Amino acid sequence: MDDLRHDPDYTLFRPILEKDRRFLWMVSVLVGLIGWSIYMYLRQWKYGLSVTGLNNNVTWGFYIINFVFFIGVSHAGTLISAILRLSQAEWRRPITRMAEVITAIVLIIGGIHPIIDLGRPDRLMNVFYYGRLQSPLLWDVTAITTYFTASTVYLYVPMIPDIALLRDRTTKFRWLYKFLSWGYRGTERQKHILERAMSILMVLVIPVAVSVHTVISYIFSMTLQSGWHSTIFGPYFVTGAIYSGTATLLVVMIAFRKMYHLENYLKEIHFRYMSILLLVFSLLWTYFTFSEFLTGVYGNEPMEMKVIRFKLTGAYAPYFWSMVTLNFLIPLIVLTNKKLKTIKGILFTSIGVIIGMWLERLIIIVPSLTNTRLPLVVQAYIPSLTEWSLFIGGISMFCLLFLIFSKVFPLISIWEIRDGRAEGLEEAKGRLESYLPDRAVAEGRAQ
Amino acid sequence: MTKWGMVIDLNKCTGCGACVNACRMENNIPNVGPEAAHDGRNMDWMQIVTEYEGEYPDIRITHIPLLCFQCDNAPCTKVCPVHATYQNSDGLVGQVYYRCIGCRFCMAACPYSAKKFNYAEPNVPGEYEDHLNPDVTRRMKGVVEKCSFCHHRLAHAKDLARYENRDLRESDFQPACVESCPADAMVFGDLENPAHTVHDLKDSSRAFRLEEELGTEPKVYYLKKEDK
Lengths: 447, 228
Fold this sequence. Notes:
The complex is a heterodimer of chains A (447) and B (228). By secondary structure, chain A is mainly α.
């Protein structure tokens, strides 16, 4: 233990080793909130969905919105980390772990939402007994379970060396680390196998991640409802998902940087690079939104226009224009302006993007249900206390699981940082040299 | 193959609501009470939508009775994850209350908003308990239901025809709403059997189906309202 204090990376061990009063305080608040939402859910179990604000036309509300939203956030992680690893971006080292944890945790929360939404949760197993693979809902079940398996393995495998390190050098949770490290000792062979497994996983996980949100968009686009029946929904949802995920990753990075004093690991440059990614996705998202609405408006099909008018100038106009502001205008202004692009500015933008992307899910789901094809009287959808409570419960669950994770495992991959110091520098130099025109050849021509 | 269908003459419909009430009685439709009805959770399988055209005093009123159209190419059966809504061999779109998981995907997929969801445990006041129709399953909290074209009557009619060793006649099977219509605005029968009235009516120049362009092939036809 003593020698660890002199370790150059002691900051990364500190959250695990040292007691923290803030942690207990936060955990108790979060557990309270989750307890409240569990109580509200049990109430819903007893009284049925009558405790929500849903009605016979607007049959999907907060639960489905949050389902799409949370699953979207989960895309940050694995996808960003896999792409950064694949492209050998050296600055990825302190980021990948956090990104992967987001995926694993948010997938659990997102995956629970369709079950909360069921009118008969007691018959959940019917999905397996009588499942129809022709139903997009079954595609979701398949895609999400696959993605969850892939992303937890992808989170776990690169953690093995760190767990082994904790097993050897700390005394807390010895049994857990011993079990989870699988006898990893860091021999050449083990390291080779580990790296091989990682490179297979990161290639595998990308198509799975893309498929998940595509399939979620299919729930909507496979129906005939105006506003949903659109061919661009697959890529549109994937883009939105990565966008909201990147913003969440930035918020998480900034929060833990402050909480655990990780300034030396998460430097300004990381935020600058990540914010470029955020800006790219902001523009991509805007492009998709623009295409979606322009084709609708130009075609001027009456039912389609009814929904579009409802969004642009009708009851949902305040939400729509705040979404445009939060997802397009603010990121564009803040992230292209050097003076505004500070960590505070990025935090502000990211929180805005998360809210904006949640609004986008709301704007996609509810207006199409409110504007029925037949001239019916439709009651407006007003979410009830139960729905709000479960939403807050979901967010609390995210914070709680993340906090607990940070107290058991290092949030920044220690071995990858060390590898970066030991080999990364040389390797990057070698790689850079290999990009440049060969000097020998150039000189040979000169002669 | 039979293809049960309905033709509703909008010229004749007075919007009296007899069909809606007959449907309630026949299919044990629960009374949700004023509050839930206000929240848009009415369970009626049939409803009448009234469209107004023109300005007072020259108003043209059209009453359109709406029910499940039992589409041949039903968008709802396609998306059900558990085979709880399906098309049976009579071409009717069935609903299995004891299998439905209440995901409400079929409701979101139905372009006609024909489906209803039991948000709460169905409320049947004590005095109604003895007057429920024993032929129709009572639904439970958390499942989706909709108009069935009174398929329990079809089962009866088929049994009777088999017992008497003859083919089904048009008068053997009529849903409760059609039976109750005082204006004879609704006609029911086999759309593909030339002996049935609906066979010719559906080819009338006034006949149309709602949102026909979606390709859902609804089996309920309307006869356009004409000024006299």
